[in-house]
Amino acid sequence: MYLNCHSFHSLRYGTIPLEDLVTQAVGCSVTAMALTDINTVTGIYDFIKACKEVTIKPLVGIDFRNNGKQLYIGLARNRNGIAEMNRLVTKHNFENTLLPEVAPNFENVFVIYPFDNVPEELKEYEFIGICAEQLPKLYNYVWKRRIPKMVVLQSVTYRTKKEFNLHKILRAIDLNIIGSKLRDTDYCKVSEVMIPINKLMERFIDFPQIIQNTQTIITACNFEYDFYTPKNKKHYTTNKHDDIDLLTKLAYEGMIRRYGEHNTDAKARVEKELKVINDLEFSGYFLITWDIVQYSMSQGFLHIGRGSGANSIIAYCLDITNICPLELDLYFERFLNVNRKTPPDFDIDWSWRERDTILEYIFNKYGRDHVAFCGTNVEFKYRSIFREVGKVFGLPKEELDQLAKNPIVKHYKNEVVKMVQEYGMMLEKYPNQRSMHSCGIIISEEPITNFTALEMPPKGFPIVQFDMHVAEDIGFDKFDILSQRGIGHIDDTVKLIRENQGIEVDIRDTSISKNEQTCNNLLSQGKTIGCFYIESPAMRGLLRRLKCDNYKVLVAASSIIRPGVAQSGMMKEYIFRHNFPDRFEYFHDVFKEQLGETYGIMVYQEDVIKIALHYGGLPAADGDILRRAMSGKGRSKAALQKVKDNFFDSCAKQGHPVQLSQEIYRQIESFAGYSFCKAHSASYAVESYQSLYLKTYYPIEFMTAVINNFGGFYRTEVYIHEAKMSGAKIHNPCVNKSDYQTKVYGKNIYLGFQHLKSLESKMAELVVKERQENGLFISLEDFINRIPIGIEAIQILIFIGAFRFTGKPKNELLIIARLILINFKPENRNLMLLQEPVKEYKLPVLERSPFEDAFDEIELLDFPVSVTPFNLLQTKYRGDVMANDLTKHHKKTVKMLAYLISRKHVPTKRGDMYFGTWIDAQGEFFDTAHFADCLQKYPFKGGGCYLLLGQVEVDYHFPTITISKMEKMPFIPDPRYSATDEKRFQTQHQIREDVSMTHRAPYPQEHEINLPRQKMQNIQ
After folding, report:
1. How many Cα atoms within 13 Å fall on the side-chain side of residue 138?
2. Which tens digit of pLDDT belongs to each residue from 857-882?
3. What SS3 state is found at 544?
4. Measured in whole angstroms, how far is the alpha carbon of residue 297 from the centre of its chain?
5. Mean pLDDT rounded to a whole number for the chain
6. Tell me, what DSSP letter sits at residue 444?
């Protein structure tokens, strides 16, 4: 009898989580109920499954509303009914128009109008909803005669008085008003709660026809959904037979190209994979992915296929991936196998510049009615919760900032704050808005509106109203179309090499970059700044600890850096065993047999599955549950607990030592959600090698590409420094040489206008366009005549030195610009055939400090270009030791002067600590550790140069200084200001640092893990 139930998917309205709604219905003896969230079908599929488990008949529909006003409720009689409603909501979302006040002509939908919005005439399938408190109105003849068209409408929105208050808070958040401004019409009625079904029936006992009408609708609504058959586009051709024939043809052509005609291992692997793909009817998915990649290659785009898809030799032969699974012993079953209950997907990366072109191709090729992005629910997060709830209670901005930025224990203690905390914590994990999944695309056989309404975010590509988990549950295999800056680095570098040196580099041919000797030498030294995935301080430190000088070790390093391996203690253990392979024993013979390549250490997701199956004796289905948990895709804690129980039962039956089994499962658990599959690590390693090869042989073009793509681990200043270290000469933006992006001429790099913080992008683009169309600027006067520019923008260009080609000092240029612009008339701005000669002004010679340019640069770019930060220090001291000599000072105390690059926060059981990354006066990088007790006395004080004192610790070839004291060193006074002006010391505060925060529990310490290095014997 509940035909209008709202879950928390009625965004900023409903307060009841979906599972709780069904649980409450069971407690109220409900046998049938409808989920009708407001203008959405987000929860209907989870709702159907939850209801089936408790034998409640699920009805699904939509509560149609305009700006909060309820128009009517639609209930689907069948699947066609939900499709009709989806199309109505989609039209409303796409066109940004109001929903019609009267329901359109549905064919498979029951429509229920609320009592205050009933049209004069009702169609056969339309009814009037009435709640118990409205029943007295039926004594009026006007309403009494309409009883034959009435049904029970007991809406459900909240559960308790506290949740009613939460509902009102949500409504105020939605309307962006304080709670006291809410009107009665802005929130639901107090009566919108679920009560036991017998009590509800008692209220309508005098109106049996209303009860009968309600029951008739419940009986007539039969929304049955098949959760088991695939819903993706079935065939790339027209049928299954043609699909597998085409896939077979393409696979063998690719195999011959990749391996030659007589490689028996490759041929056997291709045959094996084709059989599984055919049996599982997955050939269409492979071919659609191949088609997308072929289009990409035809456009000259670089792509990277990664993830578990790289386990497939078919994917390798079709150019979807560039990883040879035979070389790395990657087993196909990790990607696709008969025991796998859910289909896999390919993860494919493109440059962030080219991804939209790929998306347009997919939408156009496969039809916009059949293609959409997965949605995702953006939940209320800690900061936003307290800020939003605090606004409802009328707190001022200062208090909102305090609540948002600090943990609860540091909040002010008063009644209002207490309520903000109480209701705020209730909202944790509640959906706040729907958004676009970052990469997941659905290509459907049927029109997508048969399954869901669509929404149109600002990006311009439609999204479904459910997330990737629901998509998978209802039969969709998504295509992950991703973008990353690393590919942009590689792609742009190749283009820059062609332009700057006339050399063609086929970077797609991985044989030229993978395991190249010079690259390997730099890799082992951690000289990888700018290179995809291997440039962070932690990764560079790991490479040095491992003396990583080949592809297979880099593949392992790409995975052991992940939090799961690090947290389990296995990263440290891998480093030890790699450096001392004769000083450990394998835990068990299974580890030697299955994980010999990684010294018996579980490094990849496959390793976890291997040990679970071969040591634990678990069935393949349990291995798949573990795989999903490690991929972050599993949603069932109960299923994972069952696997754990099975593991220990099976280990006991095999007579394994209990202590060893416990240690192994501890390692398995730590991997969940935080490790890579081997193929994914291999894909990353190949891309890292491509980056490193370009950096090794074409460093100036490579660093220019990194600067232009942004998105690296470090700020732009660091990459400019690295370009200098590679032999480039860096120039400030110039109106005759610079483009919007940074440009390279030989060994000269001209910074792009985009780096000038205060210059509008439109102005920068206009300068470039005018120069390209009408030639170089010959003077400042010529520039002003051709570019519509104000005094503020012209000053920015003068201060950065963009007119240095004139040979005039900045002071003189500023005076000329002001004299011209005072009397300048915009209507006179044109290109004259005969320009009037430039009027020469006789100006006094103005003295200028050589450091003034550096401070101009800091102000406009955030860093100096013409000098290093060390040149601006008051002290001439540069430290006792340089970074290159640190390995010679193990356990010694050193004093160094260094420029701060970045610091990373790390939680420990003794308090927060930081790892710092610095460069010395010679430009070389080194790292420091700052523990909590030291930080209390000697904290970081922002970007700049510091005097450091600490002890050197050399850990497996990698030196780190444990800091005992440090102090930030002052710059010289800014010479642009007078001696009495306090601004003389302000500019230096603009020098930046990169700070990364870690939000996790502290890792266990080494003595707490106590990893065994010897075999464990079974204690009787």
Report:
1. 21
2. 999 999 999 999 999 999 999 999 99
3. helix
4. 26
5. 91
6. B
Q: DSSP string spanning 698-748? A: SHHHHHHHHHHH--SSS-HHHHHHHHHHTTPEEE---TTT--SS-EEETTE
Contact partners, residue 599, CB within 8 Å, separation at least 6: 574, 577, 578, 581, 584
pLDDT tens-place string over residues 204-243: 999 999 999 999 999 999 999 999 888 999 999 999 999 9
Spatial CB neighbours of 853, under 8 Å, sequence gap ≥ 6: 801, 866
How far apart, in whole angstroms, are the C-alpha atoms of residue 255 and residue 274?
Answer: 13
Q: In what order do the strands lie in the sheet with 347-351?
A: 303-306, 347-351, 479-484, 431-443, 371-379, 463-464, 454-455
Structure tokens at 647: 């593991």
**Residue recorded with tokens 């001392």:** 580
SS3 243: helix
Q: How far apart are CA 193 and CA 167, in angstroms?
A: 12
Nearest Cα to 678, choosing from 337, 345, 341, 325?
A: 325
Farthest CA pair distance, the chain? 104
Identity (one letter) of the amino acid at 247? L
Q: How far apart are CA 759 and CA 1016, in angstroms?
A: 67
pLDDT tens digit sequence for 542-564? 999 999 999 999 999 999 998 77
**Model pTM score:** 0.85
**How many other β-carbons are positioned within 10 Å of the β-carbon of residue 977?**
15
Reading the block at residue 533, the tokens are 């995935």
| 933 token code pair | 């007790």
- Distance separating alpha carbons of residues 431 and 419, to the nearest angstrom: 20
Kindly give the pairing relationship between strand 945-955 and strand 925-930.
unpaired
Give the confidence band of 261 by pLDDT, cuts at 50, 70, 90. Answer: very high
Determine the Cα–Cα distance for residues 847 and 809; give it in Å rounded to an integer.
10
